[in-house]
Amino acid sequence: MYNRIIYSLIALFFVPVIASAQYTFFNPKGSFAVEASLENTDELRMPIYQNAMSSLTVSGDFILGGTTAQKGLSPLLFTSSLSQRKLIAVTQLDQVVKGQLSIQTGFSRAKSGNVFYAGTMPQPGTGLGGHIIELQVNLQGQITVKDLGEPVAGEGIFAMTFNPEKNEFYGIVHPSGKFFTFNLKTGKKQIYDQTAPSQKDLDTYHSFALEPEDYLGRALVIDQQGRIYGSRAINKLFCFDPATQSFSVLKDELPFVWGREAMGRIDSWVKMPEGTIYGSNAADGQLFRLDPLKQTIVNLGKPIMMPRIMAMTPGKNGMLYGIAGASPGYAHLFSYHQQKGFRDLGNPEFKMISPGLEQGINWRGFQIASLATSQNGNYIIMGENEALSQLMVFPAEDLP
Fold first, then answer.
1. Which of these, 75, 179, 205, 344, could form a disulfide with 192 (CB 3.0-4.6 Å)?
2. No. of H helices and E strands in the chain?
3. Residues 26, 382 contacting (CB under 8 angstroms)
4. Do 382 and 391 form a contact (C-beta atoms < 8 A)?
5. With contact defined as beta carbons under 8 Å apart, do 237 and 231 qualify?
6. Is the peptide bond before 353 cis (omega within 30 degrees of 0)?
């Protein structure tokens, strides 16, 4: 909330300059914002400091979200209706799993039904571990949460994905950086240390004043052959093959700016509907394309000057949308197409149309950390990452 006040003051002072440069916010026809966080109203809202939207997906008409809370507070799970354009349900995670801080892994979908999975990060200093949770969204948008347990004792789940064909989870834990597998059907768990940094790696990270949350890969992706990809020290990509229970390191490193290799890590992945895989490097904000058959990557460049690409999602007809930039700067929405290249769409500003105190105002997204595409492909949904976060939605139309 304090960041929003600062950004608003900056925008107030610089409006004449921006206007003179003919700067326009991203505000396409059909876009809207949904008020999800505000305490002084009788409408259903998420409480302040618990509502930074770190994970998003869509189940039919319902947006399903998971949040990151401030220390000592419980993260939330929520649904919002795309058609009604309002918040439907809010659940405190500590009603099911105690001592958790965030749901940051994104959501993986089960093979059938409106069932999803996510991993959690525990409150710091408690000695607790992260849990895998199962969520079901019913036809009214209400959420049922089930605790599937702690895959690695005393460690949080920093990144996780799920293969519905094998009923198997794959994850990276915090702070060690170890890799785990967990079979949902058999309950069998396996922990591997091939992805954990060596002492030499840790010494390098120490010289850059990097903590585990600064260097561990934030996401994992599964290719068409069922292999899992992520990042490990230093600036490397690994591949885990469940068929052989073996790891390999790709020859191609993450794209980097010289001298900043130690800060390289995966920020986000996206698999397009036809199977193309794109990834991003958090350190300098480059987008790249992964070729799983050749085990090579192609650096596609940077959409904006700032580091970070925290989230990506497919659009229509081969279009990719992503969020570049992060605090202390502010987020830019961008698009990428193999034929059209990058387009920096700038800072989104959508009209708030849901019932509530802010109805009718233009809501500007300063910090955005999660993205999702509706199941029919018609909408792109963005989740803010602040103390007072709202949902921002726009039509997934082709852009020039």
1. 179
2. 3, 32
3. no
4. yes
5. yes
6. no
Q: Residue 357's pLDDT is what?
A: 63
Cα(242)–Cα(225) distance, rounded to whole angstroms? 10
Name the strand (E) or helix (H) holding 81.
strand 76-81
Q: Are 182 and 132 in contact (CB under 8 A)?
A: yes
- C-alpha distances out from residue 393 to 30, 295, 320, 348, 350, Å: 9, 35, 15, 10, 8
Structure tokens at 12: 């107030």
For residue 295, the SS3 value is: coil
The model carries a pTM of 0.92
List pLDDT tens digits, range 251-308: 999 998 888 999 999 999 999 999 999 999 999 999 999 999 999 999 999 999 999 9
CB 87 within 8 A of CB 80: yes
Output the CA–CA distances (angstroms, integers) from residue 172 to 123, 292, 322, in the order listed.
17, 20, 23
DSSP label of 200: H
Q: What is the pLDDT of residues 158-202, one digit of tens each?
A: 999 999 999 999 999 999 999 999 999 999 999 999 999 999 999
